[in-house]
Fold this sequence. Notes:
This protein is 50% helix and 17% strand. With 456 residues, it is of the alpha+beta class. It folds into three domains: 7-159 and 427-455, Porin chaperone SurA, peptide-binding domain (Triger factor/SurA peptide-binding fold, Orthogonal Bundle); 177-285, Chitinase A, domain 3; 288-392, Chitinase A, domain 3. The protein has a four-stranded antiparallel β-sheet. A four-stranded antiparallel β-sheet has the order 8-7-10-9. Strand 9 (374-375) and strand 10 (379-392) form a beta hairpin. Helix 1 (7-20) packs antiparallel against helix 3, helix 2 packs across helix 16 (443-455) and helix 3 (50-64) packs across helix 4 (73-96). It starts with 6 loop residues before the first helix and ends with a helix.
Amino acid sequence: MTRFLSAVACVALLVLGLLVLGTSPVRAQMLSTDPVDKIVAVVEEDVILQSELDRAVQNVVAQYGSNGNLPPRDVVERQVLERLILIRLQLQRAESTGIRVSDAELDQAVMRLAQQNNATLDQLRATLERDGFSYDEFRRTMRDELMVQRLRQRFVQSRVNVTDTEVDILLASDSLKRGEVRLSHILVGVPDNASPQQIQTAREKAERVRAEIDGGLDFSAAAIRYSDGQQALEGGDLGWRRFNEVPQVFADLVQGLQKGQVTQALRGPSGFHILKLVDERTDAKELVREFHARHIMVKTSELVSSDEALASVRNMRKRIEDGEDFAELAKEFSEDNTSKVQGGDMGWFELQSYGTRVADVMETLDDNELSEPFQTELGWHIMQRLGTREQDKTEQLAREQARTMLRNRKAEEEYDTFLRQIKSESYVENRLTDPTAKPKDDAADDTLKADDAASG
């Protein structure tokens, strides 16, 4: 999530997006002002209440309703409820596998969010209150979001591996395309182990959706209305990605497209996909400025005070100015065990490789100039800049990007399969899509179940 409009106003937009992800049944009960709050979905032993769904739908309408692309409310409700169900399943799996988010970790995440938006915590709280959101509710929702992120990270770390051979094959192939692409996506889902009739029904739906787009329906409106993808409520927008980070089925679909063009529906592992190429941009040559330097370090400790270390470094600097050899002094006196055997030589490095303080000193020096003594968290230093160069890192970065692309592609495909699996293995009762699952006159029983869930 990175890309905002203004400091405080945009915090509210992100909060709205987070709240769409859902809340626990206890918190859902807190949101309700209706004495009869019916259950709209059962997820294992958990429930989702009408009040929770209403609040999430209101957030979607607040975010996207002004552009006129939202379908009728019942369609939005179905999309939002599917997302709430999926988030609830992920939270349940995270909790059952021991994933936790401490208060300290949550505090840090909230602080980072505020800082990313150039806002203080007080400004964040004021924005929430202005838009009718409880700060405590926001924190609980953000904890849920962090839980889901950690579940995904754990899954990817345990299931997704990229070998050097795979990177070599990709780099050697003609399929590696440089640059970035922005896609929008519509998925008409097909269940696992689908029957031929289910596949045909999905195919016909995808073709109807494609025909409506040809007939003038805005792609984002079609995504919100019809898509089963995770980004449906964002109009199918997948955002900017490295071209080769998109799933292989998508990469194959958009080859040769022009900006604004829409693909035909293509069958993939999870259903039928329709893509729109929103935009693309190419890579420039990646030139990186590197520095060559050497240094002498004297550490501070319980036995060596900061003043003593500074005095020692000053003495060595004077001896160098008087003609003694820098490398010999470094070998004898420097306490950086990595560089001292090379006479203090640090090799070639990028500016921030050794931290901000070293970078600041580097930028003030000319080639062959000796620095004044300066302090870092390790001790006192003197440094001599030996040279600078522009290094072409295009190929190195291409290899790193290829590895990242393969990892992200595998992760997206594997995690999508994982989500379908946990949904198929779980008891899920969606009372919007299957109204016969619960008699309509059982509202009192619904309220009782909601009260039981809230009391825990």
